[in-house]
């Protein structure tokens, strides 16, 4: 005689184990995608330090990290706790999703939560969200809505497809409006330094290292548009062998203007000097966030878009203000927005219906 409880426990264990295995693959994506490495070649994982491929017996999700105490068996280098955390987090999410949602929705949400996890960890580490996650996620969400109309709470496949596509477009346009409005209102930041501060710009292949005092970063990090410019008010400066005093440098990503003269940066090796004041360009967010909210909309619909945006903005603002109050934020620091969008999406996915009901009761008790 069949035992329903045994079957249910079997599927729960299966969901957890599958989640841990998928989490192992997500670790591969998190490590390789920002480096433009293939997630298929080499097929087996390798140690980030010695690059030796890891045999399957040392690559068992969750167990291997614990057994090896977070170290590579070949070279003894530490393996970041992130690898274990991603596997455990994915396993727990797979289990909870299976317990909460009907199986057709659960299968789709397994894909969705995987995308959210990859986007979150990559954005925290690299301040980017790869197109494989954003554009790929948008396509996956739209196709999932076509296959399972209940995802958009519709009976018609075509109607669900249209709702998903419309929600994706809404997510992109909503953040695009915020991006453009923020650029017009806050696209420049003027920084008056406490004292004249050394700076340097040193070319490195197609990019450069830009340093002002203790602030250090890549030149490309400061420029998102062709029209962006940076102004340096220098007490003294040197461009390769040429020396200047009390000069204003107007810098674009690819060129330097000094008065009426314009120099191409690819013909300059080094700029250095002492700066008193600078004006830097800035963006409200990266364009990857626009595509990421589109992917969220494709899976969660228009209500998920609005909730993820407002919840993400609220949490991101609290984190930003807290770090500023603690004195840990520098003028060049960036805050990734993708993880907070992902947090809003997770909250909506599990508690959206309850939140709507709670809000409706507030309006009409």
How does this structure look, described?
It is built from eight helices and eight strands. The protein is an alpha+beta fold. It has three domains: 1-95, no CATH class; 101-183 and 285-365, no CATH class; 188-281, no CATH class. The model has no long low-confidence stretch (mean pLDDT 90).
Instruction: Tell me the major beta sheet.
Output: 8 strands, antiparallel
Roughly how many Å is the radius of gyration?
A: 25 Å
What level of helicity do the residues show?
40-55%
Distance between the termini: 49 Å
Strand adjacency order, main sheet: 3-2-1-8-4-5-6-7
Task: Give the H and E element order.
Answer: HHHHHHEEEEEEEEHH
Average pLDDT: 90
Oligomer: single chain
Q: Are there runs of 5+ residues with pLDDT below 50, and where?
A: none
Estimate the strand proportion.
15-25%
| Structural class by helix and strand composition | alpha+beta
Total number of distinct structural domains: 3
Please provide the count of β strands: 8
Number of helices: 8
Topology:
Blueprint: H1 4-32, H2 63-67, H3 81-100, H4 103-126, H5 131-147, H6 157-186, E1 188-204, E2 207-212, E3 215-218, E4 230-239, E5 242-251, E6 255-258, E7 261-264, E8 270-281, H7 287-325, H8 338-363
Antiparallel strand pairs: 1-2, 1-8, 2-3, 4-5, 4-8, 5-6, 6-7
Helix pairs in contact: 1-3, 1-4, 3-4, 4-5, 4-8, 5-6, 5-7, 6-7, 7-8
Briefly, what is this?
With 365 residues, this protein is of the alpha+beta class.
Keywords:
alpha+beta, 3 domains, 365 residues, 18% strand, 52% helix
